[in-house]
Amino acid sequence: MAYLQDLIKAYGRVETLTLDSTGRRILVRCRLDGELEAIEVCIERYALDRDPSGARLRVLECTASRRWLQAVLSDHLVGKPIALPAWAAAAL
After folding, report:
1. Distance, CA of 4 to CA of 43 (rounded, Å)
2. Coil, strand or helix: which one is 34?
3. Count of the separate structural domains present in the chain
4. Residue 88: what pLDDT?
5. Where are the beta strands (DSSP E) in 1-92?
6. pTM, full prediction
7. How does residue 92 score in pLDDT terms, banded at 50, 70 and 90?
């Protein structure tokens, strides 16, 4: 969770992280700056691509509890490869 915490620290903090590696699902509950309530992001499906240069996560489908965040995720996250440290790839 510390890795994800570092990724979003400029925007808020992670409250909970739930990984389901068998179902290829990730649920993140976070408190973003300026929001009155916690926000949930659910990565419904993801792919993990590995090659000699490392591992990358590709989000195939995700939802968010805020419409504006759903739009941001669709535009900037879905389908884009995200380089992962080896330990994070092993957890997924």
Report:
1. 14
2. coil
3. 1
4. 87
5. 12-20, 25-32, 39-51, 54-64, 81-84
6. 0.87
7. confident
Dihedral sign from CA coordinates of 17, 20, 24, 27: negative
Length in residues, the chain: 92
Q: Which residue has the tokens 């994070």?
A: 88
User: CA nearest 55: which of 88, 6, 20, 16?
Assistant: 88
Please, are residues 49 and 55 in contact by the beta-carbon 8 Å criterion? yes
Residue-wise pLDDT for 23-54, tens only, equals: 999 999 999 999 999 999 999 999 999 988 88
- Domain extent for 49: 2-91
Distance from C-alpha of 28 to C-alpha of 42, rounded to nearest angstrom: 6
Cβ–Cβ < 8 Å for 16, 39 = no
